Amino acid sequence: MDLATLIGLISAFGLIGASMATGGSIAAFWNVPGLMIVAGGTVAATLINESLGQVLGAMKVMLQAFFLKKASPQETIQSVVDLAAKARKEGLVSLENEDIPDDFLARGVRLGVDGLDPDAVNGILLSEMRTLKARHERGQAIFKFMGSTAPAMGMVGTLVGLVQMLQELDDPAAIGPAMAVALLTTLYGAIIAFVMCNPIASKLEQRTKDEVSQKTLAIAGVEAILKGENSLVIQSKLEAYLSPAEKAEREKAAG
Amino acid sequence: MDLATLIGLISAFGLIGASMATGGSIAAFWNVPGLMIVAGGTVAATLINESLGQVLGAMKVMLQAFFLKKASPQETIQSVVDLAAKARKEGLVSLENEDIPDDFLARGVRLGVDGLDPDAVNGILLSEMRTLKARHERGQAIFKFMGSTAPAMGMVGTLVGLVQMLQELDDPAAIGPAMAVALLTTLYGAIIAFVMCNPIASKLEQRTKDEVSQKTLAIAGVEAILKGENSLVIQSKLEAYLSPAEKAEREKAAG
Amino acid sequence: MDLATLIGLISAFGLIGASMATGGSIAAFWNVPGLMIVAGGTVAATLINESLGQVLGAMKVMLQAFFLKKASPQETIQSVVDLAAKARKEGLVSLENEDIPDDFLARGVRLGVDGLDPDAVNGILLSEMRTLKARHERGQAIFKFMGSTAPAMGMVGTLVGLVQMLQELDDPAAIGPAMAVALLTTLYGAIIAFVMCNPIASKLEQRTKDEVSQKTLAIAGVEAILKGENSLVIQSKLEAYLSPAEKAEREKAAG
Amino acid sequence: MDLATLIGLISAFGLIGASMATGGSIAAFWNVPGLMIVAGGTVAATLINESLGQVLGAMKVMLQAFFLKKASPQETIQSVVDLAAKARKEGLVSLENEDIPDDFLARGVRLGVDGLDPDAVNGILLSEMRTLKARHERGQAIFKFMGSTAPAMGMVGTLVGLVQMLQELDDPAAIGPAMAVALLTTLYGAIIAFVMCNPIASKLEQRTKDEVSQKTLAIAGVEAILKGENSLVIQSKLEAYLSPAEKAEREKAAG
Amino acid sequence: MDLATLIGLISAFGLIGASMATGGSIAAFWNVPGLMIVAGGTVAATLINESLGQVLGAMKVMLQAFFLKKASPQETIQSVVDLAAKARKEGLVSLENEDIPDDFLARGVRLGVDGLDPDAVNGILLSEMRTLKARHERGQAIFKFMGSTAPAMGMVGTLVGLVQMLQELDDPAAIGPAMAVALLTTLYGAIIAFVMCNPIASKLEQRTKDEVSQKTLAIAGVEAILKGENSLVIQSKLEAYLSPAEKAEREKAAG
Question: How far apart are CA D160 and CA E21, in angstroms?
């Protein structure tokens, strides 16, 4: 897991917990029925529109986003340059038993070695990339849905509490605590949405962009290998996908 | 109906009902005039901008989304591979009396057998897919409209109740219950929007994406059959539309 | 006018009126200065950004959307098939004096008869369709603007009322009624936006989609006629634009 | 300035002013510090993200939108038809000293007379149109930013006022007026956003659409002149950009 | 740093500070725990979805946006015209040792001098521009995320404070100040979002547009140089990217 994510989670909940504790007991903020209606209601509303398989798939995509190491574009470029050089010297068939660490790149090269023409390989890799993107966007959509439903469920809980309180105003001393309890669900909804669901949805979005740009790089690389392009041209083409910082790193590593 | 949908619906309403019951009688949350203004007003506002036919069509699309079984991409791929093999061996005409379970695939093959060129068939299938997509999006639009109108009608009901309450402040004991009743419509609006309309709209959106990707697969398959492509190439092309999980399933089934 | 629209309008206002009447006199909800600031202010804000001509044009587009009969795609398909058959038998020039009910289709055919090549005709019809779409979207934009301005003007009215009330808190008995009056403008804003402007904007959006898909069908038809395509091919191409229900209707009519 | 704009501005402020005056003195709504924090804060926040040049440019674009006369598409069509007829009779070079009122059209014709091929001229005019569109969208963005910042600054002012009021609750008689003053900034924010910034942003958006469609017409016209098209074809092509009302006007003028 | 930015920042905070001071002591608005939960919570939530590297990268992009001088399109045009003239006279190779101030332009020219064909150079420069745009959009996304999270964290803080206050209503004199403190976090959230994060996000958006249009100009210039176009044609092509004001400036400088 990213160190930043861990720090973020701990400090977000720590700050909120600390501010709850300063006013007295943190236990005053713990209300199981309220938590049930907000967290349970949000999950229930999500199950209405998504099959269990989709929800579990979204969890898997989320865990990958948090725990899997990001691929390095510099390594992919180096692989492509090496493979292209070998293909030009010894022919495309020589790549048959090559061990290529990047799965996606490897699949593209193998299709080319099997005799498919570069355009067909390109089309297949593009379809695969689009399928991956659609799968990730489905995961994002689930967390975005939860992020917009949680505050609504919090409001539902607060309204239920307010209606109950307003119907029994006999004991003025009970009004304050009853209203406090009613507000708790709104608080839960805001925390679930803004500290959990929305950051996860945003993380998935960024991760998808990273994967798509990594795969775009690999597709350009496969095309260059299959078309037998000159390795200097390949290098220029692929380095255009790097940020200045990544380019500097690559030059340091190369140089 | 999806098991998850059923579980979701039951638990969402169960959780809300339970939280209403904890504070005393659930009957306090039952208010027919309030329900009329929110649910009735939402439906009425929808009828202003949609013909009855469109609203009924949206209901039908919704029921299909909840009750129809999703097509399996793996089966479509297997059909395409089998049909392509037969067409290459015995000619395209041999597919004339073939029984193809996927209607859309069958229609595409039949157009090709009737002698239309692959590009024309492609164009026709694309038009059909776009027509289907537009029809589904119209259904989504109706539920999204209802999902944004219901909270507004809830607010209208609450404002009406507040105005009535504020004009007769003589009896302080009546203020609480009157305000409780006024808040009920806001509660109804939130439940209708966030537990019913929005999940349905989201379900339709996901279902449309599934159908479009299934049809995209079938269109690619028809093109491959009509162009007489090699079945290994077809397999590579079509499997690019599967997720890793679906690919693994297919390999297990094949192996 | 669509029956559904009429039912929708009557029942929406009926429900709101009924809920107002239950609490006593409906007259309590009638406040001319409040109505002036919300309805008048919304119209005034719209005039700031739209010329009178544009606003009147939007009204005209709206009336058309509510009162004009929708074109039938089945009739357009039948016209195209008949015209194409005649053109193949007797030559394109034989269509010169043909009486074609669909104006847009007629214009396309006439341009072809006048000797323009099919691509030029296609370009001209596409430009016309885009011009129509832009004009309708301008109309939608006006109603959407009003739908987002009305609640804001309602809030302005309520704030004005609250400020006036808060500055003279001497008479406690006057607070309730004064606040009730202040809330009325928020209520007016919500009704104007959610029961009037938003449904109209949504109606215009759907109507525009209908017209664009009808015109797309006609453009495909004109192209097929001018290129002298086989009527079976034309039929397959154009029926791809129909929904299953429309296709069934057409088959019943034809059979 | 458009008559409608003037009427709109006067009646919007008139209605709001009248509703303020009905409750007593309009002076109660005048609060210089509150106005400073809302109007000044909005302008200050805008200066953070826009250079002075950009803000002044946006003002200029706004003034043009309100004061410059809209170009007439009918006149442009007539110019194109006349120029095309002359070019076909006397050669393209004969247009060299022609006086063309529409600047953009004139520039296109001059580039063609100077010997650039039609595609290059087309590309240059498209770039110019895109540059103009980007400049106008920057202006819109500034007013949209102000329209979303003003209510936020109003809320900031109200919160500041509430905090000050809540810390000194000793004198109950002062609570009402203090709260009234606190609410004034929210009122100012709403008026600035909904009666000034948003209508201006919307006006700029519509004006940009008008200019782009006018320039699209001119670009089609230049292409037709340089390619030496038949004037009947040109007329059909260009009239497709007119609305039915504009077409009727043109026919009346021509006939 | 832009003078306008500095003026904007100082006057925004000055105005808010002044309005706080008018009501008594500005110290009443200083609440460290409240600031911690809003500012700290916003940063923590951002770290959940962004790696530390990304957040630092966004800071760097922001500083560049505020401190780096904007490139001048007029200078780029002049460079291109001069280089094209030299290339036409002395051959493309003569540009090898040319000192070109605009880095991006220089890289394009060097690739051409190295023998890549114009289309490949074009493709490489486009990829670089897209990579830059994606990097800047990531930065914008971070500030937009913070701008939408800060008000939510403010609301969380206010709800925590309200719940604490409502549970201890024994001392009526403490209610006002407790509520004032609770409202402070909402105030902090609004200031952080609307005076800091949103203007920065907007600045980055505008800056990205500037850079993309500057790079688009350079790409068109490189293409013109490599294709050996006539310098009058180049001038016409490139000046189409200038606004009227920039064009006037350039003419003054040239004339």
Answer: 10
